[in-house]
Amino acid sequence: MMNAYRISMSRVFFAVMLVALASSAMAQQRSPEGLFKRWDKNGDGKLVPAEVPQGAQRNFKRADANGDGSISLAEHLQLFKRPPKAMGATAGVKVLRDLPYAGTKNPRQMLDLLLPEKRVDNKPLPVLVCIHGGGWRGGHKSGAANQTAGYIRPGRFAGVSIGYRLTGEAQWPAQIHDCKAAIRWIRANAKKYNLDPDRIAVIGSSAGGHLVTMLGTSGDVKELDGKLGPHLDQSSRVKCVIDMFGPTALLQMGEKQNAPTSPESRLIGAPLQSAKAKSRQASPLTHVTKGDAPHLIIHGTSDRI
């Protein structure tokens, strides 16, 4: 992927901004399962108030759905499925919410479009596309939209936050089909919203990092395009990618990820090693070619793999 590091000068301003966005989003976007495991100090599979960080304790009663004084993993994940409150995060930004991109009424197949209330000029705006994480089974597009708003407010960029079907509803390749349909929607509506269809960048962490990397490497993989939405004449290619700790090679992951109940196996619909062809298809590394979009990949050196 040496071509991934040859970013032309025309892309530099775009890349610099995306690095700043990555730094912010990485601090804010956490895997719900990872948070639960870190907070569950005694490993008993439930959280009590003493285990929850002070900043998150205000949500304890809301998460404790059955009122038993502890939070199970299921209750914890359910809290993350609820659209978070904006809390003024989108001030100075016009947010067009729940725009259907796939020609359906499925709330998971919708996107939020963020436009600056004041643009620096009348030129078409480059687009920052955020894809939320959550193990492909949780998370919500509104969280990514709120995090992106600060970069849209100055008037130099537009933002899009994509929703996609989770594994409780559909398995692979539904998730990448949704994301590609959303990219095609952006291009088809670029003139309407004064967007630059040639400068679409994608960013995501964890499961979102996996999906943005799939977008960056599968632009020439026809079987992953899907047939969703009315804009099949549009390209689903992207200009550049920021992947924050997204899986790139599913068959090289550990035995824990091969378990039938792991997020990765739930994505595929079977244990990874028992469905090798599908696992390879869902691995961004499988599709790397010379013409792929430049990638910035961020991963913690102390993360357990």
Folded structure, characterized:
The chain is α/β, with parallel strands linked by helices. It has 2 domains: 2-30 and 91-248 and 283-298, Alpha/Beta hydrolase fold, catalytic domain (Rossmann fold), CATH 3.40.50.1820; 31-82, EF-hand (Recoverin, domain 1), CATH 1.10.238.10. Helices cover 32% and strands 17% of the residues. It has 11 helices and 9 strands. The strands form 2 sheets. It has a 7-stranded mixed beta sheet with strand order 3-4-6-5-7-8-9, sandwiched between helices. It has a two-stranded antiparallel sheet with strand order 1-2. Helix 5 (141-152) links the parallel strand 5 and strand 6. The relative contact order is 0.14.
